[in-house]
Amino acid sequence: VPDVRRVFVRQARNTERLEKRRPQLKQFVILCATVLAGLVISVSHSAVAYATCTKHSRYETAPATSSDGGRGTWYLRAMTAPDAFTPPGGYTEQAIWVGTDNHASNQDWVEVGATQGWHGQNIYTYFTVEGLFGGIDSYTETRITAITPTYGTTHRFSGFRNANGTDYWAAIDGTGYVSWTNHHAPTNSWTMGYETTCGESAQVNRTNAIENQYRIQATSTWTNASSSTVGSVAPGLGGGFAWCSYPLTFRYFLRSDLDQTICV
Amino acid sequence: MTIRMKLCLTTAAVLVAGAAGALAIERATSSSGLPVTVTPGAQPARDPELVARTVLDRLGPGATIEKMTAIPSNADISAYEPNGSKLVPGVEPLGPVWIVRARGAFVGRRVPPGTPEVHHKSGYYVVEDASGEILEVGMP
Predict the structure, then answer these.
(1) pLDDT for A212-244, tens place per residue?
(2) Could you read off the pLDDT of B116-125 as tens digits, one per residue?
(3) Which residues, 6 or more positions from A186, have their beta carbon under 8 angstroms from its beta carbon?
(4) What residue of A is the nearest CA neighbor of B79?
(5) Nearest 5 degrees, angle CA A131-CA A133-CA A134?
(6) What burial class does residue B93 get, using C-beta atoms within 10 Å of its C-beta: 0-12 exposed, 13-18 middle, 19+ buried?
(7) How far apart are CA A63 and CA A185, in angstroms?
(8) For B3, nearest residue in chain A (alpha carbons)
(9) Of A176, A224, A236, B90, which one has the greatest count of Cβ atoms within 10 A?
(10) What CA–CA distance (Å, rounded) separates A29 from A36?
(11) Range of lowest pLDDT (A35-49, A63-77, A79-93, B101-115)
């Protein structure tokens, strides 16, 4: 009987001790939860993540040692960027990405095109971008302000090695506007198409690309692409892509209200 | 007070102190005493505070200004930023412009298909003095 009593007393003491510690434990849990919540909030504020849709592209590979430029001509049809004002500023663009430094056009490239939406402004402007990830780490985008694009007009966009053999130029209708000094030949691939930021109902009306060429390095002459591959299409975006006269001309669109079966 | 509680409180205190310190540094850098340089030939009219605000607004919370340089035009940004643009001779430049070097959440999104967007903690903006509009962004 005394043993049983001792057990009861011990249990009672333990329960009492736990009851006393309960508020402390509660405080501990609340404090840790607060600290964790603070950490989560600070991390979510510092890590800015914006999704990019990069679809409806076309891809062409040129001989690795013979090319020093790529170009395409297309009709500028209306496009929209409803998230242009949403920080950090959405956009929809039509562009050519020309590979440099003997790297693929998605690694080292010079890009030139027209965009709806530019750093928080809902404007339509020409622009060019350079990216170097094969060696030097750099990314730069700049507006081309000397000329202004107009819907309903046709223009040639190109990226090619400058005559001095060092820089790559971003050119429109054969005129160079911006020189990117850290880009060199050869060009071993290029890509053309559109790109839009995710999230809202951006639109690219049916766009007809009527020229698709690369420049032969030895002769500085332009020649038609001989083979090509259609890039991926974002599921659910409501866009499409089609060859009109393979592999030279093609069309692409995103939620366009124009007849998609027409190739002009 | 248990050892576990003491540890937790100490950690919390350190974190709070660190956050407060960081905020204090940001405030000191961005509110007054902007590190402005005006190069010979540049005659900017815009208030540097407004230029800085344009950049900080683009970069979001926690961004800070490191250096602001007013230059006569955007003809050769590469003279100041190694990977910056350089206008082809004969192309009409805009000017004066501000090159604003900053720290913050720089994001490059105009990447080719198959390339993930670019993130850097530092970079620069080029802002046109006359309009206050962004002409260029580069990173890192």
Answers:
(1) 999 999 999 999 887 777 766 555 667 887 888
(2) 889 999 999 9
(3) A64, A65, A66, A67, A68, A102, A217
(4) A181
(5) 125
(6) middle
(7) 12
(8) A28
(9) A176
(10) 10
(11) A35-49
Alpha carbons within 13 angstroms on the beta-carbon side of residue A137 total 8
Q: Is the ipTM reported for this complex over the cut 0.85?
A: no
CA-to-CA distance for A210 and A177, rounded, in angstroms? 22
**pTM over the 0.80 mark:** no
Long-range contacts of A143-146 (CB under 8 A, 24+ apart): A143/A118, A143/B135, A143/B136, A144/A112, A144/A170, A144/A172, A144/A177, A144/A178, A145/B94, A145/B135, A146/A177, A146/B91, A146/B92
**HSE-up of residue A71 (Cα within 13 Å, Cβ side):** 27
**Of A259, A77, A53, residue with least CA distance to A153:** A77
Q: Which positions in chain A touch B137 (Cβ < 8 Å)?
A: 119, 140-142
CA distance B17 to B113: 43
The answer to whether A180 touches A170, Cβ cutoff 8 Å, is: yes
A163–chain B nearest CA distance, Å: 12
From B58, B61, B84, residue closest to A119, measured CB to CB:
B58
Strand partners, A258: none
What single-letter amino acid sits at B40? P
Of chain A residues 154-183, which have a CB less than 8 A from chain B?
A: 167, 169, 175-182
Chain B residues touching residue A169 (CB < 8 angstroms): 88
